[in-house]
Design brief:
The chain has one domain (2-20, 28-242): Rossmann fold (3-Layer(aba) Sandwich). The protein is 32% helix and 17% strand. It contains 7 helices and 9 strands; from the N terminus they run H-E-H-H-H-E-H-E-E-H-E-E-E-E-E-H. It has helices at residues 2-9, 52-58, 69-85, 96-111, 121-129, 164-169, 227-242, and strands spanning 31-33, 116-119, 134-135, 150-159, 173-178, 183-184, 192-197, 202-206, 213-216. The strands form 2 sheets. Strands 1-2-9-8-7-4-5 form a 7-stranded mixed beta sheet, with helices on both faces. The two termini are 26 Å apart.
Length: 244
């Protein structure tokens, strides 16, 4: 719902695909992979990895601040909406049908050279597609620093200058929200890490040889009141139009 609104606001028409309603033909011009159920660890042949040692080696203070009044108004409704939309069909937090559909959509989009915006789970699936792996649980990562979990933009990230992400956001540093408990571990082949949080955890990757193929760990669709975040959807729409 929020992603569709963000696409429409950026000038695009959103098509919603589900395992029960897959695309009948390849007539989409760009792809958004959204957040939600965990990516099945079997897809990257990994097991749960404890991150305590990594966190202790690189722990830094995570900066927080009072959220602006507009964000405080959005927060309660967005949190409730996110909890509703993120529920997976099974009790294990996995959704095999969605994994299968989105892997197929991702392969089609890449095969056709289409632009891609991958969000949270979507960024993780994008990384797995290119041969990367994930941390399956991040609880131990934050033993020596506060674990920020909020729809509000309270976590500061550093962005690689001149990256496609930096161009889309118009900055090399910004605040983002944090709703994930998994994250990228080893980076997929052909992807560049272009944003990290203070702990060193990966917050964004991109494919540098494509005009717009970006995966972000946060949820830009939940903070539409921030102009920079809307730039991600606008960049996707611009790349889709250019590829026609």
């Amino acid at each position: 719902m929020m992603t569709r609104a963000a696409v429409r606001r950026a000038g695009g028409e959103a098509l919603h695909f589900t395992p029960d309603h897959p695309p009948e033909r390849d007539d989409f011009e760009g792809l958004v992979l959204g957040g939600g159920a965990d990516v099945d660890p079997a897809l990257y042949r990994d097991t749960a990895v404890a991150l305590g040692e990594v966190a202790r080696a690189s722990a830094q203070a995570v900066e927080t601040e009072q959220a602006p009044w507009r964000s405080r108004i959005y927060a309660p409704a967005l949190w409730a909406l996110r909890k509703l939309l993120a529920r997976a069909p099974g009790g294990d937090g996995l959704d095999a049908g969605r994994d299968e559909l989105e892997r197929e959509l991702l392969a089609r989009a890449i095969g056709r050279g289409l632009p891609l915006l991958a969000i949270c789970r979507g960024a993780q699936l994008m990384n797995v597609h290119f041969g990367g792996t994930l941390y399956t649980e991040l609880r131990e990562f934050y033993e020596e620093m506060p674990q920020i979990r909020t729809v509000l933009p309270r976590k500061t990230i550093a962005i690689t200058p001149r990256s496609r992400l930096a161009i889309a956001l118009g900055t090399t540093s910004c605040r983002v929200n944090a709703l994930h408990h998994q994250a990228i571990r080893t980076v997929g082949q052909g992807l560049d890490v272009v944003a990290r949080e203070a702990s060193g955890l990966v917050q964004a990757v991109e494919q540098p040889d494509h005009p717009f193929r970006i995966g972000v760990q946060w949820h830009p669709e939940y903070i539409p009141q921030h102009r920079r975040q809307r730039g991600l959807f606008e960049g996707l729409m611009a790349a889709a139009r250019a590829g026609r």
